[in-house]
Amino acid sequence: MTVRNRRWLGSLVVSAALLAAGCASEKAATKDLGAEIDEIAAALIQQPLLHSTSIGVVYRGEEFVRHRGDMETGKPGPPTDATRYEIGSLSKTLAGTLMANAVLEHKVSLDDDVRQYLQGNYPNLQYKGEPIRIRHLLSHTSGLPNMLPERANTVLEDFTDHRTPSELNTLYAHYGKADFFKDLHAVEIDRAPGKDYAYSSAGTELTAHILETVYNSDYESLLRGFFGDSAPMMGLRIRLSDSEASRLAVGYHSDNPIPTTPMPQLPWGASGNVKATVPEMVKYLRFQLANGPVVKESHRPLVTFDSEFSIGYFWNIVSGDRLKGVYHAHHGGVPRSQCYIYIVPKYDLGIFIITNQSGDQTARAMEAAIDTLVEKIAAREALAGNDVSR
């Protein structure tokens, strides 16, 4: 689930503190990178409402993990490597990776009509004879609404309203797969699939159903099995046991000073319910940077919208950035945390950053921190004599 349906890929307003931390110079580039990441984390939590942050970085094979701040106001206690975070819509990139693997294993074709994986008749999942295909789910061009039930989209229109978390909890308290399919029958597709970008978590949930169908296994088992073997990320979870839930990060919604509840459980959880620690996400960065066949397929553009923006298997693909070159990224947001992942091949660089606060300025503050870090990496590369002009 995203905080807003927008392309967050543009000019950034960088706070004075982060800009000061990010001024690249030869002197700065000679500092220990771990110390610089720590400084960036410290500057980030000086932003209004931000309580704490964790950052994981893989740069040319070297790993860095930094935690800063206190998880709860007035209670000393920073996040740790054991803290389990809700990674929100970063979950979609995991689902995209599983679908890329299914394509390579010839379990599915990108041009399959999604209705062949559904029981019953869905004449509504097409527009003038053009059906919704798997590629349309992956590229957010299916025409499906952001969320099902439709009422959730109305709730999310005013995301920062203090009532939003409780209203979402009520909507999804007893909302299961059967309810999803009932609502899917009522969806109206008002434009040709494959052309217009319209972010859809419902499309990701349907992707998880297709994966369950072709592999004859529940989605969480597929998720944990694939990434446990390939990354290896042994700690990924969608649903938590009582003992695991005790390590789930506390978080804050908007400017509410009282900690809020976790993201409610969605029917499959593929669009926004994955939980992971920062060390687990560092393993994911390594997996992405290794660029094996499945990753390479998942990073392949499925739809190009303009010269700077395209979509792979749920990955945003951005080009034209002076420092970053072509990179893959995704934002994640739930009512009590926001995060980003960046894969920047130009520097053999992966970044994961997360905060335990979710408001209308949280994403912008994290984007500024990421830009600061990339500036420092670019300065480091220039000193090393690497070509950073590409």
From TrEMBL:
Q: Which residues form the signal peptide?
A: 1-20
Q: Does the keyword Membrane apply?
A: no
Q: Which UniProt keywords apply?
A: Antibiotic resistance, Hydrolase, Signal
Any idea where the Beta-lactamase-related domain is?
Answer: 44-369
Q: What class of enzyme is it?
A: hydrolase
Q: What is its EC number?
A: 3.5.2.6
The reactions it catalyses are: a beta-lactam + H2O = a substituted beta-amino acid
Q: Tell whether Hydrolase is among the UniProt keywords.
A: yes
Recall the GO molecular function terms of this protein's record: hydrolase activity
Q: Which Gene3D superfamilies match?
A: DD-peptidase/beta-lactamase superfamily
**What family does the database annotate?**
Belongs to the class-C beta-lactamase family.
The protein, known as: Beta-lactamase
Q: What is the lineage of its organism?
A: Bacteria, Pseudomonadati, Pseudomonadota, Gammaproteobacteria, Lysobacterales
